[in-house]
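Exam prep: given the inputs below (a chain plus adenosine-5'-diphosphate), describe the expected output before reading on.
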Amino acid sequence: MLKIENLTKTYATGDKALSDVSLNIERGQVVGLIGPSGAGKSTLIRCINRLVAPTDGKVLLNDVDLVALSAKNLRRERRRIGMIFQEYALVERLTVMENVLSGRLGYVSFWRSFLRKFPAQDIQRAYALLDRVGLLAHADKRADALSGGQRQRVGIARALSQEPDVLLIDEPTASLDPKTSRQIMRLLTEICQERNLPAIINIHDVPLAKQFMQRIIGLRQGEVVFDGLPSELDENV
Ligand code: ADP
Ligand code: ADP
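Solution:
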């Protein structure tokens, strides 16, 4: 499914952010990335979606190496990667529904006139996603009228609307209170299991990771120092 082989990233500044990282992530598996600040978690996520160009190694999504793709092919393949962000990255003055539909545009064009022309089938699917994340009644509200937890639910529905093969999730609960954080983590893990979607979650909250992740990967100074079940994680990783 998602296979990372010998991934290395050295920034132009000389910072070695990732050093020979190899991982294999199966369908439906929800993997939590933990590690201290500067460990390379964001760099790993950015190398997978190619916001950052790796120095060396491969990122294979369904056997296609994203690292080796031309810009044009990369654009196409990136649509198979669903992103969910810490600060939601919604378009505030668009409605919930419009934000969800914008996932099908690849986060680039957000024009209302364009959104109105979506095929009925896309609209139907967006309503089904809003129903799944518990926001059907809020479909026509503006994004900026929602609470943090609701906004993250929109972020989840938007990522799913592009029908991704993998989800990359960057600190999804960092701006949420503990109760809402647990609700969001539960929703994310249930959805990944239902859809057999693999996910990598950059998660700074270790107790939350232990409660919800099926597998935890610990990074330190760009290297994998732990890879196993949450129950096997000892506190000093
Ligand atoms: P995070 O919460 O991911 O640890 P940081 O505060 O480390 O975020 O980084 C914020 C932004 O600054 C990111 O875009 C990151 O890529 C960039 N950044 C981090 N370290 C450096 C650095 N040494 N030089 C240049 N940019 C950096
Ligand atoms: P984490 O997400 O675990 O906090 P990062 O991937 O942000 O770690 O950072 C890993 C290392 O790479 C750090 O040493 C950081 O300073 C460095 N780094 C991150 N982004 C950049 C950047 N854009 N330019 C230079 N160095 C960076």
